[in-house]
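Researcher: Quick one. two chains, 806 residues in total.
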Amino acid sequence: MQDFRTLKLLDRFEKVFSTFGIDYKIMRKILQVKLMMDRRRVPTIFTQNAKKNQEEDKNQYIKSLWIYVLFGLFMVPFMLMGENYLFQMSLFFGIFTFFVMTSMISDFSSVLLDIRDRNILFPKPVDRKSISAAKAVHIFIYISFLTIALVTIPLLVGLVIHGPLFLLVTIFNIILIDIFVVVLTALIYMFVLKFFDGEKLKDIINYVQIGLSLAIMVGYQLLVRSFEFIDLTVALEPRWWQGFIFPMWYGANIELVMNGHLVPFYVSLSLLGILIPLISIWLYTRLLPAFEQNLQKLSYHGKAKVKKRSKLGGAILTFICTSNEEKAFFRFASLMMKNERDFKLKVYPSLGFSIVIPFIFIMNGFNTDLSNLSTSKSYLTIYFSLIIIPTVMVMLKYSGKYKGAWIYKVTPIKQLKPMFSGTIKAFLVKLFFPLYILLSLIMIALFGVRILPDLITVFINACTYCVICFMILNKSIPFSASFDTANQNSNSGILFMLMLFVPVFAGLHFVSTLIPFGSFIYLLVAFIVLLIVWKPAFNLTWEKISD
Amino acid sequence: MTEEIVTINNLQKRYGGKTVLNGVSFTVKRGEIIGYIGPNGAGKSTTVKIMLGIEDDFSGEVTIFGQDISDGDMEYKRKIGYVPEIAEVYDNLTGHEYLTFIGELYGLDFELADYKAKSLMELFGVGEVYYSRIASYSKGMRQKLLIISSLLHNPELLFFDEPINGLDANSVMIFKEIMTQLAAQGKTIFYSSHIMDVVEKISSRIILLHEGKIAADGTFNQLKAQNTEGSLEQIFNQLTGFSEHKELGARFVSIVGEM
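Model:
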């Protein structure tokens, strides 16, 4: 087993642990194993484009930290803004909290929620205290890395601009926030586990992971814009509800120390900032035994509610799918897309991105003047939402539960058509359509009802585009391959080529708007094209499937 | 009626340079319960996987229901049920969602599949988890789900690979009774297991595979007559040429004792 520098550093504090009655050797052993397991884990931020790296010696987590260094830059403007400490530092701490908290939930839930500890370590002759200490130190190591990556650069900037006192108070605040975030996360988990079962909690964690991935994708786009905030000066009026926004507690104490505003409002906020983390630690230690009990729920099965199939849903299904087999695959694919967490983590962020990206382009186009928006043709930026289709089409063959795919071979599936058409229809109807409706509603609000025929055309083109992608991409059985193989045979060349179809669709659309009734003609043409390509695309035999 | 359900003729299969099956031939008649046994790595699961079309690229002839399975027609699978040894399922689905999907793949109507799956789950004592995700099931529950998924479409031929793995004693009794009744109806069952006394009791015929070849084929009484040993376990040891268990056990324990 290899040794870790972190642990060697920890060795210097051996005496401290020993005085608390902790078996340091055992704790160190446990930590060593845990850190090694961490190295083999790919953090959420990387899952977007990570392939399983065989070099195990590099900690994937440490490598992911540079992204946080980048996001640290995002916080630099708040240091430069001036001396409106309450406002700028509240935002600073708010962003800091967001990153620590989401990263905590998405990547370190496995530590907080590890029930293997109970099964593997508890039967061994190791005292509980050492196990809990190992857990605490593990989290501490993780969160220090994260914090250092995030705030080092902003703090150095802060030191230069505001001086050493500012630095000291901010570091003090950051430590308090770290403690509060860890305890708050644990308390939230306790709360969820108290009322729901483990599956629900895993779903919640999954959605936070999706949110984090999306936030980072969008964050890249907005990073540059954040510097435009620099001139913003906002005077904050004291309000009672501000007491609940905990980054403000820390903004307030900096205001207090740096500007010497000794008003009761700032004093009370600052006091909250110190007291609440301390109270929450006390609460946590009191509730910990109950938490450990509830953790067992993670492996329990809750008694689930019977889901009635709605009549309307059935009618729509019959309308969409022709054969019973196709219906079966439609239902199956919808469920997999809805329930499979790995799939969601890989696909949902890009779906969210597809909503955001048209508006980024609209905003770029109308940086200064929004008045002639409603008569412009900027709504065609909705085509940007189509660029995620090839990626999702590739992803459809992957699943975290890919081993279940033996059923395809065992069951008498003669025709492959319903399998593929059902799955693609499920993607279009269950994933793409809701997003598209949302996007369309926003577009209609911006551009008026006049664009309705265009929006329908774009959706029909999206369907056609799906079929084209399916025809060009390698055909594989849906949900039958491991995500680990996802990046090995690089698809990026084909994906890029497929994306070139989008400007073609959009270009034709633009041309059609120039001629009278062009939109309607284009709508009709698009519909006919879809009918023509749909049928033959799915006529496949088993031989054409690449394993 | 002695109808031939499965005919295998000189089946051979290689993985890379390693020969897994080296000329296996047998015929299975309607209503037989075949105990298919052999040491780890003898090729039992491979034979079953070939018959199900999960593995291809073999040489030899495999005929099921009178149809050569390499002709590309999937129709013969409609009358086959399969419980795999390693229970890989799409466990992010609920039992309800998974079983109805499997049922529909076999051509059952959704409502019928749902009704049958639910009733069978209830009879097997796991009705309360029908609407829960399979990921939360215990090992026994998963195994019951797999058994049910293999029977939903009322198949003629069944492949059970360690089907009672993880079932409690009572459920094992139910399962044995199910097998007996199915066989009485004329269903053919192919039963692979390492638990010799169960195989000894339920099988109407035993096929022992060793190093890719058939080492013995016949009823338990025939095997007993051919060999000097009494139980199937002992016959198994004798036919696979294994007699060192005492010595190996002793060495194992002596290393355990070293400090």
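Chain B touches chain A through 39 residues (CB under 8 Å).
Researcher: Thanks, that's what I needed.
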